[in-house]
Specification:
Elements: E1 4-8, H1 13-24, E2 28-35, H2 42-54, E3 57-62, H3 96-111, E4 115-117, H4 133-146, H5 148-151, E5 157-159, H6 167-176, H7 201-213
Parallel strand pairs: 1-2, 1-4, 2-3, 4-5
Helix pairs in contact: 1-6, 6-7
Length: 227
Amino acid sequence: MKPKAVVLLSGGLDSVTTLALAREQGFACHALSLDYGQRHDAELAAAKRIAQRAGVEHKIVPIGLDAIGGSALTDSAIAVPDHASEGIPITYVPARNTVFLALALGWAEVLGAWDIFIGVNAVDYSGYPDCRPEYIAAFERLAQLATKGGVEGGAFHIHTPLIAMSKAEIIRTGLRLGVDYAGTVSCYSADAEGRACGVCDACRLRADGFRAAGVADPTRYRAAGTG
């Protein structure tokens, strides 16, 4: 019997590649998406389609981080920047990955799974503090202390297969595994149809990755010629 794993699936490029890698490694995957009040909620529809095509169990859990705001991704009064910025950008969502991993950990306990996959990256990324290796290591230690399974001797493992990859390396890996990136949504300002703005940080990193990988960018943009 295949070991079970919870895979955080946003519907974007990185998370779908992470799901493909978890499946390649022989895990029976259970995909978890979070409806956290993100303005780019077209990614949730993408996550649903991705999970259906992969034939994996999929849950979308509402958590409503827009209730506390503090990010351009959850507060409509804060504009999504159209340029790179110094330091941690306003698109950082306070405690997002901590909340995401906590929910994934809870579902893992229910499923009897010891493995959690998350598509964080510390190479081509926006500088979010909860994407760094030291953060992941700290959460893994927390998982042992905070759970019945951990206290009773089990060992949870947080897998971050993309953390040291460039965006181009991620894309090449996904293509090797048959990932269809045309169905993914990465844009922070994606419209209801999932079309990208072409100017936000997520769009820039994604477009640069396809160029560096030397493959055509399948992203659908709202305006011709962007990206």
